[in-house]
Amino acid sequence: MAPHLWHDPSIFCLELLFTVIAVGLCAVIYRKTKDIYELTKYPGIGYFREAFLFLGISFVMRFLFGLILLSREVFDVMLPRQLFVPLSIIPLGYFSTAALVYLFFSSAWKRIASRFDLRKAILLGNLVAVGLPIIAFFTRSHHMLIWLQTALLVLGISSALLTEHKGRGLSQMRKLYFLMFGLWLLVLWTTDPSPHIPFPLTMLLDAASIAVLAVIYRKMMKWTR
Q: pLDDT tens across 185-204, in order?
């Protein structure tokens, strides 16, 4: 949700509630998938759960980013915005991009491992996660980060579409991939601090994000029973 809306205490509380629920669901999914990963040792699941770890942290960073933007108006704290706002993009951008990178690895690790050293590919992915927010920092453009992450999102969706699978229809993991990519598309929209985003739309997108997380959580619960 755009931080300019948080001046209303009720809206601020809604955003806080959204963050708590989203982070809580990410933490539970990360914890539950540990049992599946330890049982199967399937790398795709390992990367999938790491994506949720970074996603949960990125929700926290998004909330803190909003607090920084409101530090003067709401909390009467004189933070130098010209310094703190661009700097805050770096941790926010890293964790959110890392979530995308690990989600990409979870869907494409077999093809990557068949062509490259997987450890080097993971290192490269983390360098990308570091590099994108640095580019956004030097360009002083939050929208630059969103566009770069959108490019990664398109790459991830393309990878999931090309993933080979047996049987008819989509596999359960591929369905989860598409849910995650859809969730991240919502996150990109709601992270944009533009004051031109209508309040009902931000509320709808936040609610949709929670709904997608809840669906993924429910599927995880079925797998761990």
A: 666 666 655 555 666 777 77
Name the residue range of residue 173's domain: 3-224
Q: In this structure, what token pair is assigned to residue 77?
A: 């704290």
9-21 burial, b at 16+ Cβ within 10 Å, e below that, comes to: eeebebbeebbeb
Q: Which two tokens stand for residue 117?
A: 């050293």
Q: Residue 161, Cβ neighbours under 10 Å: how many? A: 11
Q: What is the DSSP string of 22-86?
A: HHHHHHHHHHHHHHHHHHH--HHHHHHHHHHHHHHHHHHHHHHHHHHHTTTTTT-----HHHHHH
Tokens of 90: 């770096």
Q: In the numeric block, which tokens belong to residue 36?
A: 């599946």
Task: State which amino acid sits at residue 161.
Answer: L
CATH number at residue 49: 1.20.1070.10
Question: pTM of the predicted model, to two decimals?
Answer: 0.80
Neighbour-count burial of 187, counting CB atoms closer than 10 A to its CB (0-12 exposed, 13-18 middle, 19+ buried): buried
Q: Which tokens in the block code for residue 120?
A: 């080097």
Domains of the chain: total:
1
